[in-house]
Amino acid sequence: MLEEIFSLLQKGEFEKAKLYADKIESAVDRHNVLGIIFYQQGKIEEALNHFKKALESNPTHDDALFNYAKVLFEKQDYFESWRHLTRINQKNWEVYDFLGDTQLKQSNPAMALQYYRKACDLDAPEQMKQKFEEAKRSFRRSEKIAIFCLPGLDNFIKDIAQILSNIYEVKLVVTTDGRQIQEAYNWADTVWLEWANEMAVEITNKLPKAGKRIFCRLHSYEALANYPEQINWKNVDKLILVAEHIKNILKDYHPKVYEQIKDKTVVVPNGLDLNKFVFKIRQPGFNIAVVAHINHKKDPAMWLQVMGILRKIDERYILHVAGDFQEIRYANYFKHFIKDTGLEKSVKLHGWVDDVNVFLEDKNYLLSTSIHEGHPYNIAEAMARGIKPIIHNYAGSKAQWPNELIYDFISDIPCLLSEGYDSASYRNYIENHWALELQISSILENTLSGKDWVVA
User: Fold this and answer.
1) Which residues of the chain form CATH 1.25.40.10?
2) Dihedral (C-alpha) 408, 414, 419, 424: value to the nearest 10 degrees?
3) Which of 113, 123, 431, 437 could in theory staple to 166 by disulfide, Cβ–Cβ 3.0 to 4.6 A?
4) How far apart are CA 348 and CA 344, in angstroms?
5) Close Cβ partners of 212 (under 8 Å, ≥ 6 residues apart)
6) Residue 271, phi then psi, degrees to nearest 5
């Protein structure tokens, strides 16, 4: 039938094509094809309406997502166009090219080039490669940026370094070797200190500023130690925080330091590459996930208390823990308590999991019992997949997450599990607040002089 419909479209017989399309049994396919027909007729609003209905029937239909995004782009709704493109599961070079266009229209050239690069890596035609090269020449800057990070702590900076390298000369220096640090520091115009820890202390105190712009990004744990007092803030032009409540911690526990840095502090939340997380509509169920290193910050003893309550409500509830024990006390406690209380069927310890996507595929909820967080990725990543998080009320949580997902006491959790479940709203929230595109745009605007990017 589809061949007949598209044959009719080529002949311009739109009304006859619609009659055939109305006979398609699948609602998503019917509305998707009708959307294509109206689009070919130049009736954009009607096309938009049908693509929207197709996605109401199946929110993860790749073809309908692409078509809807295309019409939204033509209506100059670039953010919504980007939103739907990220949800496409099987992306080809055309999707990445299109994603790049949405970013260029939103004055985010570093991300645009990143997407064009991905398009070129997927056997794109020669004209796509030419487009990428022309964009690189247009937006290339001569500024040299050296990013310094201690080994083992570079997980949060790798994507940023790669994306910024599309428009700047960037060196990611992950080492403790003094010679390498000195050479990269001398080479750089701009210095980025990833984490306000020992590395930041050494560089700000022992190397001359020498006219360089120096940024320092403080994540979380550094504010709970004495690193802020040891850093030479006179040599730091901008302090980047990942959350507003970290500023409050600095103010409360490092007041003298806060007075030095309060006027040069900017909050840039962490960002997720949403293309890495397959979104799907999920349902309530009994599989609860924890994805975390098992240490005191996560308050893992609370997990077992939660399961003690839930198994009395329904024995089908199971807690699946993906994480490694970082403290032998907790390893010993879990071994003892799970056996002694008969929780063997209710708690499954999976150890360290390399592929979190696979681990979370059949999970209905993500549990976070942390007593302190900066900007936790595990919650954001679950929401990006459409999984409902259950979040303990740590300081700053209510400013970061929808409040209906936050609990004060363990006794509140059964109500959260039984209340509404809305996968689309969880994904929407991450897209609206914590996308990698937003993080890169904020970095360019607030630190790397991105305010002069203007794209027609």
Assistant:
1) 1-90
2) 80
3) 113
4) 7
5) 185, 188, 189, 190, 191
6) -130, 150
Homologous superfamily of the 274-433 domain (CATH): Glycogen Phosphorylase B; (3.40.50.2000)
Mean per-residue pLDDT pooled into runs of 10, the chain (456 residues): 80 87 93 95 96 96 98 97 97 98 97 98 95 96 96 95 97 97 97 98 97 96 96 97 95 96 95 95 97 94 98 97 95 97 97 92 97 94 98 97 97 95 98 97 81 36
List the beta strands (DSSP E) in 197-267: 213-218, 238-241, 265-267
User: What's the DSSP call for residue 351?
Assistant: E
The total number of residues written for the chain in this structure: 456
pTM (predicted TM-score): 0.93
- Residue appearing with tokens 């070129």: 120
Report the 10 Å Cβ neighbour count for 434. 23
- Structural tokens at position 11: 């002949």
Nearest Cα residue to 389 out of 372, 374, 86, 370: 370
**Residue with token string 């009304």:** 15
What amino acid is encoded at 276 in this protein? K
**In 3D, which of 336, 279, 269, 273 has the Cα closest to residue 304?**
336
Class of domain 1-90: mainly alpha
Q: Is 385 helix (H, G, I), strand (E, B) or coil?
A: coil
> CATH fold of 141-267, please?
Rossmann fold (3.40.50)
* Euclidean distance between the first and the last CA atom of the chain, given in angstroms as a whole number: 42
- CATH 3.40.50.2000 positions along the chain are 274-433
